[in-house]
Design a protein that fits this description.
The structure holds 2 protein chains of 2 kinds. Chain A has no helices and 11 strands. Chain A is an all-beta fold. Classes of the chains: A mainly beta, B mainly beta.
């Protein structure tokens, strides 16, 4: 089955630690995205990547980092610089060229809790 | 800049009643619009999308939406609510420029009662 996997489903970390969230897709999509979801705020874009070895900051990139070494993988690192990291994190991918109207496909999400 | 406003953070309907979830957009160019549904602790699933081919768009699970340029609206409707429709619904608009980034509304939580 084609789709997007995110692991782990639930993640706990101590304050001051970095943590990496995994996102893998087997849809052969070029573009991938990371979002943060907080209650009542919808989804906010953290980082996105249109091709391998290239990525851009979204609206709330501070305290986060990403890499795109393989087409199918787009891991997100939440660093200790992120002041309020507890949230639900969603990864998405999209087929086609930039500017197209193809929809984004979403993974099941990772819920990160900082203790 | 593109933006989306969803009126009503919570909507409650009786099973079998009409579902109407409101979405108004702001865009300086013809928009691409999407409705997504999210069940608790899950990712988002596409319900339907508007890409200028037709103003009335039919989606999955009996939902549809009508694009009204004069009202800058893209409201989501379903004639008869089912208990399984209880979820959170997000309207989104594609931003201009590269990467086809989406701007999401803040969501509407739909409750369906017996």
């Amino acid at each position: 089955d084609g789709g997007i996997t995110q692991s782990p489903k639930y993640l706990f970390r101590k304050e001051g630690q970095n943590v990496t969230l995994s996102c893998e897709q087997n849809l052969n999509h070029d573009a991938m995205y990371w979002y943060r979801q907080d209650p009542g705020q919808g989804l906010r874009l953290i980082y996105y990547s249109q091709i391998v070895n290239d990525f851009q900051k979204g609206d709330i990139a501070e305290g986060y980092s990403v890499s795109r070494e393989k087409k199918e993988s787009f891991p997100l690192t939440v660093t200790s610089a992120q002041k309020n990291p507890t949230a639900f994190y969603l990864c998405a991918s999209r087929a086609g060229l930039a500017g197209s109207y193809n929809e984004q496909f979403f993974g099941p999400g990772t819920r990160l809790t900082v203790l | 800049a593109q933006s989306v406003t969803q009126l009503g953070s919570h909507v409650s309907v009786s099973e079998g009643a009409l579902v109407l979830l409101r979405c108004n957009y702001s865009s300086s160019v013809p928009p691409y619009l999407f409705w997504y549904v999210q069940y608790p602790n899950q990712g988002l699933q596409l319900l339907l999308k508007y890409t200028s081919a037709a103003t009335l768009v039919k989606g999955i699970n009996g939902f549809e939406a009508e694009f009204k340029k004069s009202e800058t609206s893209f409201h989501l409707t379903k004639p008869s609510a089912h208990m399984s429709d209880a979820a959170e619904y997000f309207c989104a608009v594609t931003r201009t420029g590269t990467a086809s980034k989406l701007t999401f509304g803040t969501g509407t939580r739909l409750q369906v009662t017996l």
